[in-house]
Structure to design on (1196 residues):
């Protein structure tokens, strides 16, 4: 799978340097002419053939994702020596074979049009000029050489060899290294230190839990490792064989995690500690089997009654008691520490939840302390660095892999303080908010272009390797540090590795030696090919209560200002801390909750909106004591009436063309202070002012309600256990047609069925089909980005989305249920793609036979036949056909974005209708492979990009004619149904109804 | 304006006709039947009379594939395993031409071009002869497997007898594909190729 760079043979020239892309596969701008008949005029062969690459055949490399600190392992698909798709590495215990939307969009960081072409130096007038790498390194070396020990580094890089080198480098100079990642669980770690005497973040076994209780913690979005949590959640909460965990979410906003809860209770912000303590009190006073030392907490907890908690939280005392009892009677897991509970009392809240887990016997079972989760230094260390900067004690500041000007509230004045540093260096590869204030910008290589390793979890040592030649003239910061060390000498002379690759290999040769492996070459090849070392995680430590556990308490957290509403910024599940804001795939992948793309918005409860007389799209101004912002309103029932919520991630002052001037930075309203070592996101009150301006929201939802159409079906857990079908749950079929109409429909259906026998649709051909399990689907939208990447789907931009012209072949429809009387509000999601109907309404209306049915049961679309009448789109009941109103790829794919395109899929031209193909290129590719090997295609050999990416394993794809295939068996499930079945279009996609505990909707 | 366009059109047609007439008289007729595979001696300057586009290097398929009977896949190395046939890297050329410098002045001059380009690290930009539209996918390996040794010739013609390669069959026209698929009764499903 992977080969090391053969530098021994060609000193100074990387093997991949020769891989000027062969002209045999249309690439670059040439590929953009779509399905026109433009020819490629030249054939440009390789200079030196490469045994790793055969034109037309994909080569896969193992690497590691760096889009968030979770450390998911990757398989990178390369074609003709350029990365075209990122998929999960099935060997990784963290992400298995799946990958989230953000991870997959890492490719758009690699091919980002905003990437710097080389190092830049700021002149006295503030403008930047290009310099050579020699000049840049000489400049940095001179500054570092003269700064003595006043060199400070701010780094967001995760634990790994690069961070170790950086630590050595800074340590040798006598400077300081501050590692800061937003959303770093500082409060949780402080609470763990207090309650358990150890300040690390444990592993949370969502997959083992029978009852999951979340206190405002978005574990399915940005908290900890999203993919890892989601896999565990699907394991326990995905209905199977009569088992399903219950998930209760307490928080002021129903985020994606809350949407996947069986019960969501909108509690008052800042009340989570007292609720958790009251539950612990109930459990401890009613339960005998609590851990022995928990008894000492009895007296402390006795003060926290459900009644008091009810007053603070707005949650009924009976509900608190009931949830506590359910929590105690299952193998359970409670989590806190997400942004939804990161108010000024966050440490208390996390400590209270620790106690709740402890008295229920979860610590050591579903909460396992292994000490493997790396932690950065936290916000407190960043605050200290800011005061050092403010005092003018920093001669050289190096910012690596961090964007503090964006991710730290402006009210802290970090940007001004940073300006007081003698000399600021940034290693950003795009001119971001921080880099555009730096004196020297030394663009780092993208993670897919350089060497490194990461230690993201216990037992995991994940490797990164260059999978292709650098797209831009960057240089790995590890190499820059080593070169500066060589130039400066003196204290840095100990760092004598010739390159970072050599440094990394040296460390891995130590690992090999420690494992008794004598042949390092073989060990290294194996490790690179596997993506690193994935060892069995060590058993968890035996954790007991520390003395601090008795210091638990509750104090109502303070909120700045006297505004009417609590302001709740929350991390966007697409843009994370803002690093996704320059990637169009993420900007255009709708927010899973609101379905808004490309924009910032303010969420208001319908009652609040009614009392203020504002409607969706009205731009409102939010004012806090620390700042103000203006954004359009989105009216959302899933937000507490006393709260207004705005996503983080947009509002960059600089970050490339896609991010600049887009949206608002919600942190502008937050002070960022008085957080006891963490950034209190939930700490401001705001007033809301109408501006009488309107902005149309670029959202992709149609009607947010199902209106009885039976699109996203759900059934109570009890019904599922009894094996009921969705129709039985509804109390049988509800006939809306007259007798005569029923007769007509039946006759028409019969005629259609007869038609099926006329074509060669049965017999030896496969019949491709799909099953989507709504009990597992969370709506995370990883499949959407996977589809964009696999199928060359163009992003269209904000204005085109407003016009309803988004092209996403795979979309997640989100429907609201109930909530009219303020109770029982819930949501359902349903992935919607072409249903490949056997009796497709789109096919007979096409005047040019561009839409037709293939013998293997696909509803095919022949782009070169399509003349764009759009009859098919009009006749499709699922609205899954997308029309190229403009030449989107040509208009939007700026260099070097076209390098990402999948050469196996036609880039569609203007005026062509397109839609989900069930990844026909994957099917044909696998069929070719099987035919070459003279064997039939096996079940599981072909899967679609969406099914491959899904962290929950909610999508199964295969041949429905094969009775032994997974898809055929899953389609037999009693929960199975077809959407809009009454139309008799005979879809090839079977949905399995969602299962819900409690609510009998 | 319309008159001008018309006049221009007429001129173009006339010019093309003249070109066709003159070139037809000079078209290389191919070796007479019964000839050995010995390739004729031709200089680069002789290419004007040969069909097909002039290439940056006068690469003689008739010498390599004909006279020396080299397998197509020796150079087009991926054709058996990939949808793409693969163009030989200049290193492949140099594998032989490090020791073979050419037997006459014209071949020596052409081989020197390859060697110089390789040493200078410059890629050779061949002019493309067969170019499939990008909305069609042609898996070379399936066809090589199904049709065996004659697979290449079926579409590309008797390249082994061409001093300069030209397009013998209109392989980029779908009719060409369908005719063959009809004869052999194999798939005519649109989505076999178009996706």
């Amino acid at each position: 799978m992977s080969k090391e760079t053969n530098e021994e043979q060609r000193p100074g020239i990387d093997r991949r340097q020769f891989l000027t892309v062969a002209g045999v596969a249309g690439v670059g701008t040439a590929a953009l002419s779509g399905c026109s008949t433009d020819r490629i005029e030249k054939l440009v062969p390789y200079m030196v053939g490469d045994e790793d690459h055969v034109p037309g055949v994909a080569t896969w490399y193992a690497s590691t994702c760096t889009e968030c600190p979770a450390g998911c392992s990757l398989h990178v698909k390369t074609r003709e020596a350029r990365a075209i798709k990122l998929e999960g590495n099935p060997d990784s215990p963290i992400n298995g074979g799946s990958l989230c939307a953000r991870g997959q969009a890492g490719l758009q960081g690699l091919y980002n049009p905003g990437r710097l072409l080389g190092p830049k130096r700021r002149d006295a007038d503030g403008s930047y000029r290009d310099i050579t790498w020699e000049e840049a390194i000489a400049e940095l070396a001179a500054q570092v050489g003269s700064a003595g020990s006043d060199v400070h580094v701010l780094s967001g890089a995760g634990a790994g060899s690069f961070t170790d080198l950086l630590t050595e480098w800074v340590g040798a100079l006598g400077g300081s290294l501050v590692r800061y990642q937003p959303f770093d669980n500082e409060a949780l770690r402080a609470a763990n230190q207090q309650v358990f005497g150890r300040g690390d973040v444990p592993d949370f076994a969502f997959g083992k839990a029978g009852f999951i209780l979340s206190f405002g913690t978005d574990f399915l979005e940005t908290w900890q490792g999203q993919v890892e949590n989601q896999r565990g959640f699907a394991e326990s909460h995905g209905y199977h064989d009569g088992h399903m965990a219950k998930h209760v979410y307490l928080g002021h906003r129903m985020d994606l995690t809350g949407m996947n809860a069986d019960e969501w209770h909108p509690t008052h912000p800042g009340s989570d500690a007292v609720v958790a303590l009251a539950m612990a009190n109930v459990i401890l006073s009613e339960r005998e089997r609590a851990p022995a030392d928990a008894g000492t907490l009895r007296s402390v907890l006795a003060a926290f009654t459900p009644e008091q908690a009810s007053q603070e939280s707005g949650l009924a005392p009976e509900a608190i008691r009931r949830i506590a009892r359910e929590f105690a009677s299952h193998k359970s897991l409670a989590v806190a520490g997400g942004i939804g509970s990161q108010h000024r009392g966050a440490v208390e809240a996390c400590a209270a939840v620790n106690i709740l887990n402890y008295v229920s016997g979860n610590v050591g079972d579903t909460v396992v302390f292994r000490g493997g989760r790396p932690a950065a230094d936290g916000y407190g260390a960043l605050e200290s660095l800011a005061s050092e900067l403010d005092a003018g004690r920093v001669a050289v500041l190096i910012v690596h892999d961090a964007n503090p000007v964006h991710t730290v509230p402006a009210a802290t004045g970090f940007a001004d303080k940073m300006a007081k540093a003698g000399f600021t260096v940034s290693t950003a590869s795009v001119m971001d908010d921080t880099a555009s204030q730096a004196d020297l910008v030394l663009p780092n290589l993208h993670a897919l272009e350089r060497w490194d390793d990461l230690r993201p979890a216990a037992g995991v040592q994940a490797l990164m390797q260059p999978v292709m030649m650098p797209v831009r003239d960057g240089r790995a910061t590890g190499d820059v540090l080593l070169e500066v060390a060589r130039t400066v000498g003196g204290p840095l002379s100990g760092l004598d590795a010739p390159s970072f690759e050599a440094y990394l290999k040296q460390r891995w040769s130590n690992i090999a030696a420690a494992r008794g492996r004598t042949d390092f070459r073989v060990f290294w090849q194996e490790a690179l090919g596997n993506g690193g070392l994935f060892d069995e995680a060590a058993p968890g430590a035996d954790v007991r209560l520390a003395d601090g556990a008795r210091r638990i308490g509750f104090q109502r957290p303070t909120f700045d200002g006297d505004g009417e509403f609590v302001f709740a910024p929350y991390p966007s599940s697409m843009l994370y801390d803002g690093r996704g804001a320059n990637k169009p795939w993420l900007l255009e992948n709708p927010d899973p909750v609101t379905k808004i793309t490309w924009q910032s918005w303010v969420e208001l409860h319908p009652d609040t909106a009614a009392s203020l007389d504002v409607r969706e799209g009205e731009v409102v101004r939010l004012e806090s004591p620390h700042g103000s912002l203006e954004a359009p309103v989105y009216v959302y029932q899933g937000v507490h009436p006393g709260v207004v919520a705005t996503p983080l991630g947009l509002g960059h002052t600089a970050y490339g063309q896609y991010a600049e001037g887009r949206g608002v930075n919600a942190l502008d309203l937050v002070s960022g202070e008085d957080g006891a070592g963490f950034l209190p996101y939930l700490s401001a009150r705001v007033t809301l002012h109408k501006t009488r301006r309107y902005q149309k929201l670029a959202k992709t939802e149609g009607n947010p309600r199902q209106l009885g159409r039976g699109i996203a079906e759900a059934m109570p857990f009890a019904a599922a256990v009894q094996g009921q079908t969705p129709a039985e749950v509804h109390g049988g079929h509800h006939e809306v047609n007259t007798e005569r109409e029923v007769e007509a429909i039946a006759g028409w259906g019969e005629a259609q069925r007869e038609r099926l026998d006329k074509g060669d649709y049965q017999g030896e051909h496969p019949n491709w089909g799909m099953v989507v399990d709504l009990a597992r689907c969370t709506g995370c939208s990883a499949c959407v980005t996977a589809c964009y990447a696999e199928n060359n789907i163009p992003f269209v931009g904000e204005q085109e989305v407003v016009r309803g012209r988004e092209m996403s072949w795979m979309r997640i429809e989100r429907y609201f249920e109930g909530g009219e009387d303020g109770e029982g509000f819930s949501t359902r999601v349903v992935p919607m793609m072409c249903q490949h109907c056997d009796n497709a309404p789109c096919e007979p209306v096409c005047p040019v036979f561009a839409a037709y049915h293939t013998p293997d049961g696909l509803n095919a679309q022949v782009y070169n036949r399509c003349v764009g009448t759009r009859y098919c789109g009009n006749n499709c009941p699922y609205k899954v056909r997308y029309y190229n109103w403009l030449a989107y790829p040509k208009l939007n794919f700026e260099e070097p974005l076209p390098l990402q395109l999948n050469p196996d899929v036609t880039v569609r031209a203007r005026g062509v209708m397109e839609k989900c193909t069930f990844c026909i290129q994957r099917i044909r590719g696998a069929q070719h492979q099987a035919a070459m090997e003279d064997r039939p295609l096996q079940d599981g050999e072909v899967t679609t990009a969406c099914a491959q990416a899904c962290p929950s394993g909610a999508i199964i794809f295969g041949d429905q004619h094969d009775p032994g295939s997974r898809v055929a068996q899953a389609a037999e499930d009693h929960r199975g149904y077809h959407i809009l079945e009454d139309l008799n279009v005979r879809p090839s996609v079977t949905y399995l109804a969602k299962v819900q505990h409690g609510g009998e909707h | 304006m319309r008159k001008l366009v018309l006049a221009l059109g007429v001129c173009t047609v006339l010019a093309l006709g003249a070109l066709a007439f003159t070139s037809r008289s000079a078209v290389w007729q191919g070796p007479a039947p019964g000839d050995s595979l010995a390739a004729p001696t031709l200089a680069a300057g002789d290419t004007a009379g040969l069909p097909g586009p002039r290439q940056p290097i006068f690469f003689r398929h008739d010498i390599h594939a004909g006279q020396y009977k080299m397998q197509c896949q020796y150079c087009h190395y991926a054709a058996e395993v990939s949808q793409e046939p693969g163009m030989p890297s200049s290193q492949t050329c140099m594998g032989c031409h490090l020791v073979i410098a050419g037997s006459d002045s014209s071949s020596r001059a052409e081989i020197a071009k390859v060697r110089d380009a390789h040493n200078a690290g410059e890629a050779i930009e061949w002019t493309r002869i067969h170019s499939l539209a990008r909305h069609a996918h042609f898996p070379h390996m399936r066809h090589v497997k199904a049709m065996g040794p004659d697979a290449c010739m079926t579409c590309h013609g008797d390249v082994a007898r061409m001093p300069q390669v030209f397009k013998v069959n209109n392989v980029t026209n779908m009719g060409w594909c369908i005719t063959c698929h009809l004869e052999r009764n194999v798939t005519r499903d649109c989505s076999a190729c178009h996706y």
About this structure: Residues 4-8, 10-28 of chain B have pLDDT under 50 and may be disordered. DSSP finds eight helices and one strand in chain B.
